[in-house]
Amino acid sequence: MKSRLSLLYFLQFSVWGCYLTCFGQFLGAGGLGGDIAWFYAAIGLVSIITPSLFGRLADRTGRPERWLGLCHIAAAIVMLVLWRYGITHPRLDFWVTYPLYLLFLSLYMPTMALANTATFGLLDQSGYNTVTTFPSIRIWGTVGFVAAMWFVNSAYWENGTLGFAFSDTSDPGRLRFQFNAMQMMCSGIMGILTAVYTLTLPRLKSGISLKGEDRLSANTSISKQHPSLIASLKMMFSRREIVIFLIFVIFSGVCLQISNGFATPFISHFSGIAEYAGSLASGNATMLFSLSQISEAACILLVGISLKRKGIKWVYAIGLLAWSLRFLMLGTGNPDDGLWLLIGSMIVYGIAFNFITIAGHLYIQQIAPDNMKGFAQGLMMFMSNGIGATFGTIAAGAIVNRWCSWEMVTLPGSHAPMRLFMGNWEWPWLIFAAYAFLVMAAWLICKPAFTTKSKA
User: What domains are defined for the chain?
Assistant: First the structure.
């Protein structure tokens, strides 16, 4: 079971890894660079509604693995439509690109919570401890994410031939998938594979599948077992511990999409500066960024141990401190003598992401009522990737656009100019670092009745 669920996460996150960190470069090349924040905020917009909706459907039917497959196949189809539009329209239209992307996310984002719900249920059903077992499964999601990033960073398609390059100063290098719509084709294909794979997962024993006259009584039983949306919210928010935790989930969610949306355009912009032109780091922004996911994989096993020994209070504080350090090192690094700072920012991401997101999902799984765990997972997505990431990314975009803008720059050895996000990047990153540090300070000052240590 652990091996089967590990493969599920490998496929699940490869869908995201194909485009998430380099999507901003595709938008910039298509003339929508100034709207990057709105595209990454879309992740939050859809997370406000669809994860909780599909989480409730999964709770009511007892079939999260089937809803997972349906969402993946529908999302893959939309992504392939977006790929087709991208390769046929060098100049992107916002009112075509954005609605398509919004529809894709509406179908894909629920799969995050659905995958967690299905995995937790199957682990419990098989007799595993979720706190100690889940991190070793989730790590394969990171492996899939990294593998996808490396592929789109280097792969290009020219005259019917697939090739690989590691420099953007040559014409084939500028055709790499990280700069164009081919990243979406890769994502769509992986989505189809993931949907097919979900068909092989076993059914949860708690699921109900009745026919004929038994369906009415089953629906009545389910209705009693799973309260209405309003009743569910009242039940969740009746505990002060949950309310305060979810408030800080919103504040920490602000950090989630900032580096995803702006880190690769930021790293690539060094190619347009004579001092750093042609550097290996600036020409392979997606691959350099993948160090973040490698760090995530290396640190994920620390989550369960840290929760058991230190509890959510200190684990969350360390995660927020790591976010602050990540932004600080991005703001002070460069591909030359400051390369160690860029690499350091990628390394601390492992702590920043895992000690906030993974620890949060494990904690909410423990404190949620047994008949509302799917809803609780969706609610956390609503708070972090929904409210927090939406408003945080929009605000971050306004800050970045205040100091930076997209410009056409001719690179050495290239025959045509390339659109890069040039400007004074230091100030935006320092502002983001200060924000994460202040949230950490507020979290430590606040004293809710959090469980000291996670239940084993």
Answer: 2-202+227-445 (1.20.1250.20)
